[in-house]
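Model: Ready when you are.
Researcher: Fold this.
Model:
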Amino acid sequence: MAALLVSPGVAPAYPNPGTVSGATWVHDPAMIRISGGDYAVFSTGAGLPMTTSTDRKTYSAAGAALPNGVSWASRYTGGSATALWAPDISYHNGKYLLYFAASSFGSNTSAIGLATSTSGRPGTFVDQGTVYTSSSGSDYNAIDPSLTVDAAGKWWLVFGSWWSGIKMIQIDPSTGKQLSSNTTRYSLAGASGGIEGATIFHHGDYYYLFTSRGLCCKGVNSTYWIAAGRSSSITGPYRDQAGTALTNGGGTKILATHGNFVGPGGESVYSDTDHDLLVYHYYDATANGAAKLGINYLNFSSDGWPYVS
C-alpha cells in the first residue's frame, strides 16, 4: 500500500479501524500484553479501566488498574481519587510501568503519576507517587504522559496539552521519575489549533512524534485528528513532511474523521509480534458519539513517513 499523502483540496480516503467487539468503549487507550499473554487496553476513567483480549479482536471488561485510585489525585481532580486520565503502559526491568494524569477539564493544575506492577493485572498496581506537576502559573500542562526509550537506552517522558504545547523530560530508569542530573523541560511542539496526546515512536533513522490535534470529548462534534512529525534526535527539532517545524504549527495528517468514525485521537503506538499498531479512540456516529477503540496497522513509506492501513 502506498503512503497516504494529502494534496491541497483533496479529501484523503482513510482506512476504517480494524474490526473489534465486546468491551471496546474506551478513551485514550494504551495497549500491551500482560502476564499470561492477554492483550490489555488501559484507558481514561475511574481507576483506569482495563479491557482484555486473547486475540486483539474480542474484548472483555477486566476491572481497573487502580480501583481505589490514588490519594494525592484529589487536589488535582477537584476531589476524586479515581478520576484518572490518559494512561501509558510499558514493561521494563521486570515491571509494568503505568504513567497517568490527574487533572480537570480546562485546568493546568495537573499531575503525572506512576504506578507499577509485576503482572500488569487489574488491581495489582502500586502507586509510586507524582512524577511531574504543573500549576495555574505554568505555561504547560502536565497530562497525557508517554514513555519512550531511545536508541542509546535513555528514558524520556513526553507530555502536554494545549497551553504552550508538547514537552519532554528525561527519566531515571531506576526510579521512573525525572533524572536529577537533567532537569531540562524540552519543547517539542507548539499548541497552534490545540494539541495533546503525544507519543514518540522510534523507527529506522527517526523518532516520530504523534499528536492529537483539535478538540476532543465532544462526541460527533469532536474535531480531533492525528498528526506526525519526525526528527533524527529524540529532543528534536521535529518537522512534518513539508519541512515545517512542529513548534511552528507543523504536523502531517495521519488519520482524521471519515464516515461514521469521528475525531480519532488519544493515540498510542504498540509494537506487536506481527505489526506495529496505532491504537486510538474515535467517536462512533452510529452510537450517539460513544468513544470506541480503534486499531490500525502503522506502516512507513519508502521515504520514511508513517501511514495507517
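Researcher: Now this one.
Model:
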Amino acid sequence: MNDKVDKLVIFLAKRDGIDKLVKTFQYVSKLVHWHVETTHPDVAQRFKQWEVASGLSRKAFRSGRFLTGFNALRRSPGPTPTFQLLAILANAGEMVYFFFDHFLWLSRIGFLDSKLARKMSFISAFGESFGYVFFIVSDLIVMREGLEAERKLLGSKESSKHAHESIKKIRADRVMRLMAIAANVADLTIAVADIEPNPFCNHGVTLGISGLVSAWAGWYRNWPS
C-alpha cells in the first residue's frame, strides 16, 4: 500500500502526471455532460463548467512545453536519416501545437481578443495532427524492427540470460509504444474535430472516450516503474 502511495506522489509531482489527472477530469466531465444534458440540464451545466475549467487549467500547465520538442531534437534526433527526418517532422508539429496553444489559452481567458480563439485553435490542432502522424509512424517502424529482432532471438539455438533479457526489453518497449500509439490516435481524433468538424469526431462520446484513452495511456506510460 505504501509503495502505491509513494508512486502516486511521484506521479503527481510530474507536470505530465498532473496533466493526465486533470485530463481525466476534463473528459469524464464531457461524458457526464453528454449523458445528462437532456434529462438534468442544471447538472449538465455544472459538468460543462468543470470540463472547461479543466481544459483551461491544462493549457496553463503546458506553458513553455513547446521547448520540449526542440530539446528532444537537440538531445537525440534519431539513429538513422529516416528517424532523424521523422523526429524533425513530429517534433516540429508538436512545437507548433504547444506554441499556438498559449495564444489559444490567452484568447479564451479574455486576455487576448476572443476572436483569435478559432484561428489559434485551428493552427494548434493542425500542428498537433501533423506531429502525431509522424510519431505514430516512428513507433510502428520501431515496433516492426523489435518484432524482427525478437524472432531472431527466439529462433537462435543459443538460450542465454542475455537473450532472455533482450526479449524482455523488446516486449516492454512494445507495450509502451502501443500505449503511445493509442494516445496519439486518440489525440489525433480530438484534433481532427477542431480542424474539420464532423458528426463522428465532434460527438460527445467520441471526444470523451478519445480523451480518456489518451489520458490513461499517458498515465500508464508516466507511472513510476
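Researcher: Key takeaway?
Model: The longest helix spans residues 116-155.
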